[in-house]
Write a structure and sequence with these properties.
Length: about 350
């Protein structure tokens, strides 16, 4: 059956990196039997400019009808003065919430070819392969009440609420234990249970769940220590599971261990495996439109889409091997270029991957 992909280029470098992804998908359609239909729509600042809102109803409807959503990036300093309710980021948060994409998989994998690009010493990061499972539709990002209010003494007070129901913790926990079962069966749950009751419950529920996964070794770490351990000895981690905000922060840290945030994909999944796929980097407005962005995180996000939603594991492998092949050829976008590398632009890197699809398996 033909699967539907909704493509949302978004803002900044979004359209350039998504163009590279569309070329890859077209190649997979024409030469490798991928059976998909693609449609494109506006989100983020681009949607605000056209319709006055970052997530227009038409876009949300298409996203609900699609089997998978492929997103570029949202946001630009241009929109920073807008009311928070209509900022580009609300488009992304709205999609996550409306599609119930509670499980966010963020791999941090170091390609050996890029070891020189990491700011950490090679012996600390070589062989790094971590999967961060971030809760994505709850916690302080969505908790109520929230806002900025006026106190009796006249000063303003900002407030947000960190809240997790047991069922929310349990479903992200299951997702993380299932992920660990497919990897090295080590799961580290990150919380702040020494201070926050909400994450005390988080820890309790993870311990309860662990009884259903006797093969998985569950450990717990406070988030401040986890941040330190990620840069001290990151290879101790296999799978990490954590709350929405802690996951936001730790996944950027983990990304930098691999040399460039421009290499890292992500999948945001619902309970049925429907997903939204996006690079974890942002819209990089400073380099937008300059053919300088690294499209590989987006192409690796396409590989995750092939694997998790489209059930095309062989094509996912082929695409990942093609990315590996262009790195072996020495091609580098500027973010991953070390001395002596052949620096190419976004479109050249994308074309090289399309060509490599033919030669790898
Ligand atoms: C991410 C981003 C988003 C987040 C922003 C753009 C809302 O930083 O996907 O990590 O905070 O979740
Ligand atoms: Mg982030």
């Amino acid at each position: 059956m033909t699967k539907k992909i909704l493509v949302l280029p978004g803002d900044g470098i979004g359209p350039e990196i998504i163009a590279a992804a569309i070329n890859v998908l077209k190649k997979l359609q024409s030469d490798f039997g991928l059976n998909v239909e693609m449609e494109s729509a506006l989100v983020g600042g681009a949607a605000y400019d056209a319709h006055g809102k970052p997530l227009p109803e038409a876009t949300l409807k298409l996203a609900k009808e699609a089997d998978a959503v492929l997103l570029g990036a949202v946001g630009s300093p241009k929109y920073e003065s807008l009311d928070i309710a209509v900022r580009p980021e609300k488009g992304l948060l709205g999609l996550r919430a409306e599609l119930s994409l509670f499980s966010n998989l963020r791999p941090a994998f170091l390609y050996p070819q890029l070891i020189a690009s990491s700011t950490l010493k090679p012996d600390v990061v070589s062989g790094l392969d971590i999967m961060i499972v971030r809760e994505l539709t709850g916690g302080i990002y969505f908790g109520e009440p929230r806002g900025i209010r006026r106190l009796e003494n006249g000063e303003r007070q900002g407030f947000n609420t960190l809240v997790y129901a047991e069922s929310e913790i349990r479903r992200i926990g299951r997702s993380a234990f299932d992920t660990a079962m497919k990897r090295n069966k080590q799961l580290c749950s990150v919380d702040k249970a020494n201070v926050l009751e909400c994450t005390e419950l988080w820890r309790e529920v993870m311990i309860e769940l662990s009884k259903d996964y006797p093969e998985v070794v569950l450990s717990h770490m406070y988030v401040d220590n986890a941040a330190m351990q990620l840069v001290r000895a990151p290879r101790q981690f296999d799978v990490m599971v954590t709350t929405n905000m802690f996951g936001d922060i730790l996944s950027d840290t983990a990304a930098m261990l691999t040399g460039s945030i421009g290499m890292l994909p992500s999948a945001s999944l619902d309970a049925e495996g429907k997903g939204m796929y996006e690079p974890i980097h942002g819209s990089a407005p400073d380099i937008a439109g300059k053919n300088r962005a690294n499209p590989l995180a987006t192409l690796l996000s396409v590989a995750m889409m092939l694997r998790y939603t489209l059930n095309e594991a062989e094509l996912a492998n082929r695409l990942e091997h093609a990315v590996n092949a262009v790195l072996n050829q020495g091609l580098r976008t500027v973010d991953i270029a070390s001395e002596g590398a052949t620096v190419v632009g976004t479109s050249q890197m994308g074309e090289a991957v399309v060509t490599a699809l033919e030669t790898v398996s």
